[in-house]
Amino acid sequence: MKGTVDVKLEQFLYSLYEERIARRLPPQTIPRHVGVILDGNRRWAKSFGEPAATGHRRGADKIADFLTWSEELGVEVVTLWMLSTDNLHRPAEELHALLSIISDAVRELANEGRWRLRVVGKLDLLPDDLARDLRRYEESTRHIDGLHVNVAIGYGGRHEIADAVKSLLHTYDEQGLSLADAMSRMCVDDIANHLYTKGQPDPELVIRTSGEQRLGGFLLWQSAHSEFYFCEAFWPDFRRVDYLRALRAFSTRERRLGR
């Protein structure tokens, strides 16, 4: 009985702490776009003596909570890095389970009917049936005017930039431009307009869980002026209070953007 009371008291105190942080966040400092590197699922599972798939499932279960918190806080766009191009080289058994979990997770997000999904990444590197399913889930949310959620699957920042340049050059070719004319015309804004996230604001805040302090290729182009927040918690353990702490840290940054 005493243990139950202690847990309830801890939860109550944490809820008070959360609300205190939330109340003190200036509304004008809430980022429009938050990128998240969902890291630590395997290490979370290992800490409990469980297989990697257990960690991936718990991580997938956390996504809806995070998106709900984002809605409540006024964030407009969230980008979730669910699978990198490097992850595609994991052992076949683990990768097969991971792809199945990702497919289920994106389907469940689409079925919520609350969020507009955009699938970003090299879908041609994924199994054909998974790529088709992801596009179908994306299309089913096209009419939704809510939080925009980019699910980055088979994603690598270098691949995105290469794809953007290829797409831009293809556009120039359709316009009948010579290589010299294309080179003289090409500019930063043109490339940005061919990124996977075209039409969206760049992320002001990028969060990585699990204590690792690197981007690993996440939104390389878009994060040129982003603020970074590295959280010690593994993704399955990420709490609303961790999110609020990240936003509190962001609110204190002086964003001069080189000026």
Automatic annotation (TrEMBL):
Parts of the chain that traverse the membrane: none
Q: What is its cofactor?
A: Mg(2+)
UniProt-listed Enzyme Commission number(s): 2.5.1.-
Keyword Disulfide bond found: no
Instruction: Check the record and name the Gene3D superfamilies matching this protein.
Output: Decaprenyl diphosphate synthase-like
Q: Which GO terms describe its molecular function?
A: ditrans,polycis-polyprenyl diphosphate synthase [(2E,6E)-farnesyl diphosphate specific] activity; magnesium ion binding; Z-farnesyl diphosphate synthase activity
Which amino acid positions bind Mg(2+), per UniProt? D39, E227
Q: Please explain the role this protein plays, according to its UniProt record.
A: Catalyzes the condensation of isopentenyl diphosphate (IPP) with allylic pyrophosphates generating different type of terpenoids.
| A biological process from GO | polyprenol biosynthetic process
Lineage runs: Bacteria, Bacillati, Actinomycetota, Actinomycetes, Micrococcales
Q: Which domain of life does this protein belong to?
A: Bacteria
Looking at the keywords, is Transferase present?
yes
PANTHER family linked: DEHYDRODOLICHYL DIPHOSPHATE SYNTHASE COMPLEX SUBUNIT DHDDS (PTHR10291:SF43), DEHYDRODOLICHYL DIPHOSPHATE SYNTHASE FAMILY MEMBER (PTHR10291)
Q: Report the family membership.
A: Belongs to the UPP synthase family. Z-FPP synthase subfamily.
The note describing how and how many cofactors are bound reads:
Binds 2 magnesium ions per subunit.
Q: What is this protein called?
A: Isoprenyl transferase
What's the top EC group for this one? Answer: transferase
Pfam families, per database record: Prenyltransf
Residues where substrate binds: G40, N41, R42, R43, W44, H56, S84, T85, D86, R90, R208
**Which HAMAP family does this UniProt record tie to the protein?**
ISPT
